[in-house]
Amino acid sequence: MLKIKVHIVVLFLFFLFRDGLKVLDFFMKKKTDQINNKVNVACIPVGLHKPFPSNSLQLMVQAGAKGSTVNCMQISCLLGQIELEGRRPPIMLSGRSLPTFLPYDTTPRSDQCSGFVDGRFLTGVRPPEFFLHAMAGREGLVDTAVKTSRSGYLQRCLVKHLEGITVNYDLTVRDSDTSVLQFLHGEDRLDPIPFM
Length: 196
Known about the structure:
Blueprint: H1 2-43, H2 56-63, H3 69-76, E1 80-81, E2 116-117, H4 127-162, E3 166-167, E4 173-174, E5 180-182
Antiparallel strand pairs: 1-2, 3-4, 4-5
Domain RNA polymerase Rpb1: 28-110, 124-189
GO molecular function: DNA binding; DNA-directed RNA polymerase activity
Protein name: DNA-directed RNA polymerase
């Protein structure tokens, strides 16, 4: 009986601690976002060694040829808060986000255990920072692949369902069994090709 009570208390404390970490995570993310914004405002465009017209990277981004403002900030300022699934890197059962960190360390700067990376690509990042950034990058690749497969499947389903629909000579839209879907093509009988 005592063992069951101890297990219940341990589970209660676990869920209480987990929810407390979510609240702490929210406030820490808010604070690190403020720090990140201050650094970015001070760095771009005022803090650059070469200002906009003579800075090739800035010229390329502003012209829209390649890259984005986020890329410029990651190269010139800092990588900022790393997010995995919309949150800071999760803490494992050992109390660490990576094996190199101290257990249950929740400060934003303590060896980047919370995912705040103050390094930049111009001067290099430390191995834990690189690993955290690679984790977020991999998540982005997986999300892209999953979205591509889902949208491809949806398109295939739409094409398969619409492949029997035709516009006949009397300008009615009919299904493969000749049932009428629309009496006028597009409900206005206008051909959209001349307007393109």
